[in-house]
Amino acid sequence: MFPYYLLLVACSSYEGNDEMPPEEKWTDRIATISAEDSLIEGTTYLSVYSHIYSISEHRLHDLSATISLRNTSQTERVYIKSADYYHTDGELVKSYLEQPIYINPMETAEIMIFEKDQRGGTGGNFIFEWATTNKKNKPYFEAIMISAHGGKGLSFTTQGLEL
After folding, report:
1. Separation of alpha carbons 8 and 94, rounded Å
2. Does 136 fall in a domain?
3. Is the separation of the CB atoms in 140 and 130 below 8 Å?
4. Strands 40-47, 161-162: parallel, antiparallel or unpaired by DSSP?
5. Residue 39: inside a domain, yes or no?
6. How many structural domains compose the chain?
7. Fewest CB within 10 A of the end CB: N or C in the chain?
8. What's the domain range around 129?
């Protein structure tokens, strides 16, 4: 069996307007979840920065972000029920999933937010709702932000916080 690597693409290029290219459809990853499945459900918060302040509030550095949704189980699938992206002021920017998807054991799905997409602001964040059969192997959420200009770069990570 070949390993799968999922990539949920936020946008291939963002020019500062509301017209975004269509995302990859995950119809082969749609998961049907019923109450009879005896799943453990949870919610995780993840901070994600579209840009950060530098020197003062008048100078910003734009960032690209890779949001990783990781299944930490070696044997069981994890289900992602929702992946909602919020702006600094708490306004919903985008819901990335219309239906729950599954992630296979040890697999990673990613959401990309490109440098020109400033919709999240300096305090953007995600809320993920998930479900799993094993409370010892909850999904792990991480964001990696990066920027490189003029031979200099910066990068940092944030980790999800289970609510």
Report:
1. 13
2. yes
3. no
4. antiparallel
5. no
6. 1
7. N
8. 6-11+50-162
HSE at residue 74, side-chain half, CA atoms within 13 A, is 0
Record the tokens describing residue 48, joined without a space: 């994600």
pLDDT per position as a tens digit, 124-138: 999 999 999 888 889
Question: Could you give the CA distance from residue 36 to residue 33 in angstroms, rounded to a whole number?
Answer: 8
Closest by alpha carbon to 112, among 82, 68, 79, 72?
68
121 in a structural domain: yes
Angle, alpha carbons 1-134-131 (nearest 5°): 85
Name the 3-class secondary structure at 37. Answer: helix
* Nearest CA among 76, 69, 136 for reference residue 105: 76
* Predicted structure pTM score: 0.81
Residues in the chain: 163
Residue range 66-110, pLDDT digits in tens: 999 999 999 999 999 999 999 999 999 999 998 999 999 999 999
